[in-house]
Amino acid sequence: MLLRFRRIRRCQFLQLMTTCLVLSVVMVCWEQLNTNVVSHIKSYSYRYLINQFMDINKSFTIPREEARRFSDFHYLLDHPDKCTGQDVLLLLFVKSSPNNIERRHAIRSTWGNEAYIQKSLGVTVKVLFALGAPFTNKDKPMWSDTSELGFQKQLIFEDQLYGDIIQQDFLDTFHNLTLKLIMQFHWMHSRCAHARFLMTADDDIFVHMPNLVSYLQDVSNRGVTQFWIGRVHRGAPPIRRKDSKYYMSFDMYRWISYPDYTAGAGYVISSDVADKVYQATLTMNASLYIDDVFMGICANAIGVTPQDHFFFSGEGKALYHPCIYDKMMTSHGHVEDIHGLWKAATHPQVKRGSSGVFGRLYCTAVKMALLCKPYYLNTYPCKAAFL
């Protein structure tokens, strides 16, 4: 009896020591846990248990006269007849900065080549670059500075060559990305409303245009509406660290979770959704500068929910392999390698190698090895291996 009592006391002592050790580790790491784990737990709890995003809608709704200041900018470069008289499958806006000339050239010569798309894929896709005004300092647009007019002249010359730049006179900065997003919806509404789909993308993204066109043709033929696909962020918490690029103050956004939204690197919506989002922007406070989150707020207000497409990579770069290219839609983070990737991803051998029973089995095994990792890749999920 005495031996059993001593064993019990020893077990209790070990439990106490283990508990103290765990608590010590938690106390040491609390700051990191609080900003990462705890914030995500709170965010998911809010989304799934409370889910009162109606308060967000009310908070961001403002009078039309006040909302007009987020869209009432003058066009420096415009092409109002770009879509006139054409059956446009996809209007694709690439968010670009004025100085990213080489990126725009690379896109024009690869996946964004409208002539190639028309000739090889048999559809009309309009690719436009959305820009704000270049600047010399945070207060003065470059186009208004006579000493720096040369830079704007370069953009005018570039646009005269290619006819694909849409530019307004707000400053082209990270904190004005929401203004650039609003510009896209307003331009489509007034100049290309008949396009069946709208896509917005970064200028370091790779789009597998043959795969995307084939997919959107199928969606269009099925008459799908309320369509919004991309890499979906669900239950994402605002980042409260002031040293972060995506810092969100409580004054700007006081809730612990964002509405569902797709990564701004690239997503596609149908024309009916584009029109509803346009209507929402007419009464929305667009001072929130994270454009993909603002899109989520607008979509939440109109009752549209994003859907995951497993081959939209979000913020990650897809792995280089023909079996990945076979289903690829987008991949993020491509600049120097875009020409090589375009050549490899669209090579006829890609489709031949993944066809047939053995080809499909082989590619499934390869994708499982590449995508089903025990750590987070931020590209395509493991589920994509089985598609």
Automatic annotation (TrEMBL):
<dbReference type="InterPro" id="IPR002659">
    <property type="entry name" value="Glyco_trans_31"/>
</dbReference>
<keyword id="KW-0328">Glycosyltransferase</keyword>
<keyword id="KW-0732">Signal</keyword>
<dbReference type="GO" id="GO:0047256">
    <property type="term" value="F:lactosylceramide 1,3-N-acetyl-beta-D-glucosaminyltransferase activity"/>
</dbReference>
<keyword id="KW-0735">Signal-anchor</keyword>
<comment type="similarity">
    <text>Belongs to the glycosyltransferase 31 family.</text>
</comment>
<dbReference type="GO" id="GO:0030148">
    <property type="term" value="P:sphingolipid biosynthetic process"/>
</dbReference>
<keyword id="KW-0808">Transferase</keyword>
<dbReference type="GO" id="GO:0006493">
    <property type="term" value="P:protein O-linked glycosylation"/>
</dbReference>
<keyword id="KW-0333">Golgi apparatus</keyword>
<dbReference type="GO" id="GO:0000139">
    <property type="term" value="C:Golgi membrane"/>
</dbReference>
<keyword id="KW-0812">Transmembrane</keyword>
<keyword id="KW-0325">Glycoprotein</keyword>
<protein>
    <recommendedName>
        <fullName>Hexosyltransferase</fullName>
        <ecNumber>2.4.1.-</ecNumber>
    </recommendedName>
</protein>
<comment type="pathway">
    <text>Protein modification; protein glycosylation.</text>
</comment>
<dbReference type="Pfam" id="PF01762">
    <property type="entry name" value="Galactosyl_T"/>
</dbReference>
<keyword id="KW-0472">Membrane</keyword>
<feature type="signal peptide">
    <location>
        <begin position="1"/>
        <end position="24"/>
    </location>
</feature>
<keyword id="KW-1133">Transmembrane helix</keyword>
